[in-house]
Amino acid sequence: MKRIRTQVEGLDGVIGGGLPAGSVTLVTGPPGTMKSSLCYAILHANALQGRPGLYVSLEQGRDSLAAQMASLGMDREAVRETLTILDLSLLREKMEQRPDRAWMEFFKMYTKSIKATFPYALLALDSLDSLEILGRWENHRQEFYELVQWLRGLDTTVLVIGELPRESTTDRFSKHREEYLADGILHLHLEKRGEFEVQRRLRVVKMRGARHETRIQALLFDDMLRVTPIVG
Amino acid sequence: MVLFEYSMIAIGLVTAGVGVLAATKRRRPVGLVVAVLASLLAASLLATAISRLDPSSGLGPAILVATVLAHPMLVYVTYAYLEDSPVKKLPVVAALFLGGIGVSYFALRSGATMEALYATFPMNVLFAACYGLAVAEPISAWIRLPMLRTQAYAMLFAAILLVVTGPILTFELGALRLPDLQGYVWGAPAIVALQLWAVRSTDGLPLRHPRTKPRGVEPSYRMERGTFTILQEKRPKYARALFASLVLGGQPGLLVSRNAEAIQARYRIEVDGGALATDRYAVLRFLATVREFARSARGGVIYLEDLPEIVAVAGMEEARAVLSSLRRTARTSGTTVIVSAHLLVPPETEQLRRAGFTLLGLPNVEDEVAFLVRSTLGGEEYLLDGYCDHVHRRREDLDLWDVPGLEASLAESLSAMGRVSLDPTVLGGMEEGVGSVTTALQSFRRQSLESLGQGDWPSRRALREPLAPRRVPATIEEREVLPAVERAFVEVYGEVGRFMLARELAQLDLDTRSLSTGEVAALLERIRSTAALLEEAVDGPGTVSLEDKADLLEHKLIQISGGRQ
User: What is the pLDDT of residues B274-323, one digit of tens each?
Assistant: First the structure.
């Protein structure tokens, strides 16, 4: 099976060599676990290697996103030709009428249209929860199932960011049990260490078609994002 | 003779390994028996060999010593990292053995005795910890201490490992000068039995067997005892109503749902139940609860709403096994079992059907009620929403329990109209309409599950009737232009096109039911600004395709407007 290397130090080894090409992976976790940063870092690093990517943001504006990623050492200008940011939050702001359920159609129209002239190999959707709220999903699993089927038809490797409540347990990976439908799950959470310190952690819950590591890893950021085994 | 003993030890250990593998896979009971017997064989021969140990005879004794030294560590490894399966720990176990052999070889060659090695820190501390864990675990299972109960299988594995290597343990106790505890070894089978019991029966939902007093005002459904039913509907309204109906009929109930409390409050029933714990033992716990409930509450009713949770946590294969087990429980214990498949996606329901399960498809109450109101009285949006606002419930949550309230609400609306409307003809018509809708609602409410399951739904019956005539467009031009414009938008932008067109019409304050060619020209003027808005959202390559779309739409609209720009 062809794999897309994430280029994030330590992550490829943990997920069995890279993301299976054409797979849909859920990246879930509570706020502050660097879900967006991790996904953007994967797209950014691949874009630097010439592999095109599309980052779809439904809540954070692209200027704010670019500034945040620049603070993490990822320069937008360096990948302007290979990484496209689709800022649907801007559209939401400028539309006088609320499209409601048409948001799903907007998302599909954009991703398909852009693919026609810019054949991206990686797509990040930030976030599933926003799409769910904007699109007024009624039957979440059904809608997610249909979304996953549609994304698979795009013939691209997809990362879908899913928010979890802060108090969620480490064995809960999605709000509506969507995990059964996705090909892979990267679960991020915060672990308190001692009185004052909190560490970000990453667990590969599943990755279809890959011999992945099941141990919980540390997700660290010093001058770059990296995944390392937990020591001690 | 020594070679024979070593061969037997090797065979015993290999067989034990195979048994453990089998135990962690499909044939758990067989695997456990094989593992226990084989380990006992290997361990007793090992003990015999230890007693004849000659430190100067090379690698063989070193292997034996390593086995003894690694023993508490092995038990510890099985306890540590409980989230990993025992199979995944085998490489660690193997590494411990090989490392131990090396260390022991050199230790024995340098004149150290095995007793001295074993009584040294940290081996003695590890031993005490292992001994404590093996004893504490069955006790915790007995008193249902939640933290330890959740790891029943891993602990069973550790307990088996500890107790079947009893002869080694005997040596360890001797080395630590605790010979009085050696009798523990003979209690080993009891520990394993306790552990098996813990795996089988702990962690179920606590059962109190409350009873609900019958009220006899709600829709009443009956099901023969010992019936197993899977209901498929958009929302689990019938499933809940059926369960509540049986509980109100006097049957004790077990409700497994994330919404257990809300369901009990809604139907004013009191039953056992709660949400499934969503970890790898969810299925185990659920089945333990079912067993206990079926045993203690004869003729009870079980309602499983969290089937999608089981599918998500354990997969479709386990879900099928759970359903088979429920069907068996229903047949053998006379318990009625209701399962809701409302959140399963089509491939999942298809798999269930292929596995021989029958799914009873039922209508969505909200749609049917809305249809009845619309086809008999009209204005269902206003009437239903008015009722929902009044009772502070969402429209999608309407169920058969709402029908009496809805009838009262309609009658109240009619009476309010009577106070303001003076036209007796209008009032008479309204009265007749309310009468028709009340009859239709009552008839729908009384429909049996069997007839509903056969598809005898109001909306389906009505499909056979002729449709009401639609408004005919005023002019030929009107009829042709609007559909053509809509088609152009949809062809270019997909389903988004419908929204885009509606937005443009609203911006231009145009009629959404008809359009003239002159108005199409006005639409054309806005195409570029709309395209610019769409393109603004894209930062990077990829905007070209949106420009192409705008060109295409412009071209199509020019054609429709007959060249007017």
Answer: 887 666 567 777 887 888 888 888 889 999 998 888 887 777 888 888 89
Question: Could you write out the three-class secondary structure of B306-321?
Answer: CHHHHHHHHCHHHHHH
- Is B560 in a helix, a strand, or coil? helix
Of A84, A91, A102, Cβ closest to residue B539 = A84
ipTM: 0.88
Q: Is B64 exposed, middle or buried (0-12, 13-18, 19+ CB in 10 A)?
A: buried
| Structure confidence at residue B53 (pLDDT) | 54
- The pLDDT tens digits for A94-114 are 776 666 667 888 888 889 888
Residue indicated by tokens 């059964």: A180
Please state the rounded mean pLDDT for residues B319-347.
Answer: 89
Contacts of B498 in chain A (CB under 8 A): 102
Report the C-alpha gap between A228 and B529 in whole angstroms.
50
Give the gap in angstroms from C-alpha B221 to the nearest C-alpha of chain A: 27
Domains of chain B as residue ranges with CATH:
2-201 (no CATH), 228-361 (3.40.50.300), 366-463 (no CATH), 476-560 (no CATH)
How buried is B92 (Cβ within 10 angstroms: 0-12 exposed, 13-18 middle, 19+ buried)? middle
CATH match for A3-229 among 3.40.50.300, 3.60.20.10, 2.40.180.10, 3.10.129.10: 3.40.50.300
CB within 8 Å: B542 and A113? yes
Taking an 8 Å cut-off on Cβ atoms, the answer to whether B494 and A97 are in contact is no
Give A185→chain B minimum CA distance, Å. Answer: 13
CA A22 to chain centre: 14
- The domain spans of chain A are 3-229
Three-state SS for B120-146 is: CCCHHHHHHHHHHHHHHHHHHHHHCCH
In this prediction, residue B468 has a pLDDT band, given cuts at 50, 70 and 90, of: very low
